[in-house]
């Protein structure tokens, strides 16, 4: 595994540097499920995964499955990728989406880049890839 | 806390490298340090403390501060990196004041150097460093795509356009094209059409709206007590300082629902109000000044929209309105609020982590009447210098003045 910021493995897609707090999330991704944490104390949706609620400082965050429906909060289309492994994929769009449960996720928005706009409804998909990730596309009922 | 002017800069040195004159971070740092020591009229052994920002991109050995001190054989009582990303370079001036106020040091060396593009693959390492390696980097962002999230929201919330962002780049280049070490000086004057004709790097940011890396730079400052500064030729008094770190990775910022600071961060979460608001509030309060007392501003605008956002967060305009400062010509040569007079990060470039030090060097040179590029006429007396680091994560603000009170 490459050490962050020191060397970059340029010939394959980067693997997430998993934290122990996030293991349930990654197990969910492997099963095609999008999980997030909710605080048992203040009931706030928590992202990214932690061992204490950042809002009320309670321990004991529990995992729930997200509806996977979201709205585009912001986005940017990458024209010049970070490493050559991405070249065939560019242009591709990365963005922040607000899930229906109220938390924000950084993701890829896999749609034609010229048409993407803030506020569009999107939903999670799990396309087969070298590195499994939750990818968002326009919500089907949006046509 | 109101320390008044406890300490002053009494010596400064800078050094530069480029593809035809390659120097590594140790060489750049040594050159700047020896110039600063000579400028201050002290001996190397008069220095008790060394502060640096985090290790240079081009030489990422941990404890780089100690590596450098040993390199020039500089035994010290205190030495540390201040790793609020690049903002630590701005913040360390306040740390120097505190060190001196506590009576723990007579002379403090504040230092940074880097020469990123001369030594490493900047695009690859940049994204791998500043994106969350778990929840962002696997999606393939580059730094402009992370700041592009901010740009898109800023446009959306305040009804700004690519034309507005272009005008910022044009203004920065007006200064940068007149600076001998500005990375984009060779392109000369540009106009809005030039910016809008340049390709997107990551939407909505086009190449001219993005900083470039540049060669190598170093800056070194000797800070001492106001008493010691009485013998100095052109002391610059540290009248105020402040700092604020809100998050590490950009998407973590979107999980923040409340800020524990006195400054107003707007409705949270958002990507349009930075911790500069709180850092500036502290610095102004300490100095007993407001934005209207500033003769000059030097910032860390790595992208066009960040210049606007930062000017607002420094108190020079209401949120969403800083573009008016550009439209009125106040920030360009001849304007009443000279801004980023070396071209800023957009035109001068970002040689690496030392870009935050280039801001300090430019501010100090202008205040001393020794600009390498275009000198602001009438020699400004008071300047606000702002440094940022990470993905809008860490912020420092320092107010320097030629006057002690
Ligand atoms: Zn809670």
Explain how this protein is built:
The complex is a heterodimer of chains A (143) and B (405). Chain A is mostly beta strands and 143 residues long. Helices cover 6% and strands 31% of the residues of chain A. Chain A has a 5-stranded mixed barrel. Chain A starts with 22 loop residues before the first helix and ends in a 5-residue tail after the last strand. Mean pLDDT of chain A is 93; it is low at 1-7. In chain B, the strands form 2 sheets. Chain B has a 9-stranded mixed beta sheet, with helices on both faces. A two-stranded antiparallel sheet of chain B has the order 5-6. The longest helix of chain B has 16 residues, at 25-40. Helices cover 35% and strands 18% of the residues of chain B. In chain B, β5 and β6 form a beta hairpin. In chain B, α7 (162-176) packs across α12 (304-313). Chain B has a domain at 3-120 and 215-220: Thiolase/Chalcone synthase (Peroxisomal Thiolase, Chain A, domain 1, 3-Layer(aba) Sandwich). Classes of the chains: A mainly beta (143), B alpha/beta (405). Chains A and B meet through β4, β5 and β6 of A and α5, α6, β5 and α10 of B. Bound molecules: zinc ion. Zinc ion binds at residues 39, 41-42, 44, 53, 55-56, 58 of chain A.
Question: Which SSEs are present, and which pair or pack?
Answer:
The complex is a heterodimer of chains A (143) and B (405).
Chain A: H1 23-30, E1 35-39, E2 45-46, E3 61-65, E4 69-78, E5 92-99, E6 104-109, E7 121-125, E8 135-138
Parallel strand pairs in A: 6-8
Antiparallel strand pairs in A: 1-2, 1-3, 4-5, 4-7, 5-6, 7-8
Chain B: E1 7-17, H1 25-40, E2 47-52, H2 64-71, E3 78-81, H3 87-101, E4 107-114, H4 116-119, H5 122-130, H6 143-158, H7 162-176, H8 192-197, E5 200-202, E6 205-206, E7 216-225, H9 226-229, E8 236-245, H10 250-253, H11 276-287, E9 296-298, H12 304-313, H13 323-327, H14 344-347, H15 355-368, E10 382-389, E11 394-401
Residues 39, 41-42, 44, 53, 55-56, 58 of chain A line the site of zinc ion (ZN).
